[in-house]
Amino acid sequence: MADTEVTRTLARMASGLAIDDIDDDARAVARQCLLDWFGVTIAGASEPCTRLVAEEAEDQGGHPQATLVGLGRKLASRQAALVNGTASHAHDYDDVNMTLSGHATVAVAGGLLALAEKTGASGAEVLTAFVAGYETACRVGALVMPGHYAMGFHSTATAGTFGAAAACGRLLGLDEERMARAFGIAGTMAAGLKSQFGTDCKPFHAGRATEAGLLAATMASRGFSSRGDILDCAQGFADTHSKHFNPEAATGPAPGGGFHVRNNLFKYHAACYLTHAGIECGTRLRTGETLDPADIVSATLRVEKGADRVCNIPAPKTGLETKFSLRMTAAFALAGIDTAGMASYNEANATDARLNAIREKVGVDLVSGVPSTWSEIVIETRDGRRLSAEHDSGIPADDVAAQGHRIAHKFDMLAGPVIGGNRAGALKAAVMAIEDQPSVADLMQLAA
């Protein structure tokens, strides 16, 4: 491990990335990531966990440097990063990347945009820095997967901190040496445990990651000392956080070639991503087979065994817990509940007798040798039918333009009711033309 130079290589990649290095598809998906981030963050601004974090941040005081998205106020840049990062993950409706096994955008965007607003950075600078951060988060994830996630670390919070440091470092113009030190500072702060899924701490992980990455980059820019080989060294990040060490995966091409951001997976159901394939299966059988839930005798949901420690709460009691319940999200799909609607994940549905009766018919079969994003559901009915469907939600979209239309619709649904249709439309147009923005400050004001 000590003979590798992963930290230096990733620092070189992040510090040297230029806007012209990013191909058109990767740029398009990066813009979609940012638009999706604004949508989920605006929607998450009113959530209790966001309110509590904002109250604490405002109690601490500070210079009004950066906007609290969806709240119309300003705080110091690190405080804004913490609040906005928490809000962006509050509904668990944000995008994912399976190389990271987590949520790269929410770990990167909050700190980056707060710093950009403070410094008056241009949209092209922000887009470049975002891609640098996104790629770094995925590459650090690739370095330590699958052991890191299996041990119980939430990679959004851990690898995501490195991504935020890379994005903010790139915006600040850190050279390779200082970027490597920013990674060292990030590595000593990176933290987050999967045991907190289903609590306010999960969205707080995203807030802390993006805030810590911002701090790491700014401290490195001031000359703060740290090791420059934190990913490689004995008792460093990889050594202490995983049984696996994959330098080739970390420094090599992304799956399919090009940029990791091109493999971004957007959410169209407001629940944990590992429930999405099961939702798709249940919906397909309900609509395609005209299945009445009352006719179900039993339903077996087959998923990869790792989901057991991520989203297998057997009998959720709260709306937040339903997002991490394979059985309940399958019941939602079979009953025709709107799984795209955030309001569906509430205590009333969690305790609804009809939905619980469907949930009790759903058994989870944990299997090996299949992708974590794959599911199959097999249903036995009262009239003797045996119905089945399978789906893999881990395949990136082929048609980037069509994906953009879906993200734009999702954004309208999330942002319009909060900030109004006119402002939401102006914000959407600004984000989708972010390279042309001379400063992101005006864009952030639209999101206030």
TrEMBL record:
UniProt domain MmgE/PrpD N-terminal: residue ranges: 9-248
Top-level taxon of origin: Bacteria
MF (Gene Ontology): lyase activity
A Pfam entry, by short name: MmgE_PrpD_N
MmgE/PrpD C-terminal domain: residues covered: 269-432
Family: Belongs to the PrpD family.
Name of the molecule in the record: MmgE/PrpD family protein
Source organism (scientific name): Minwuia thermotolerans
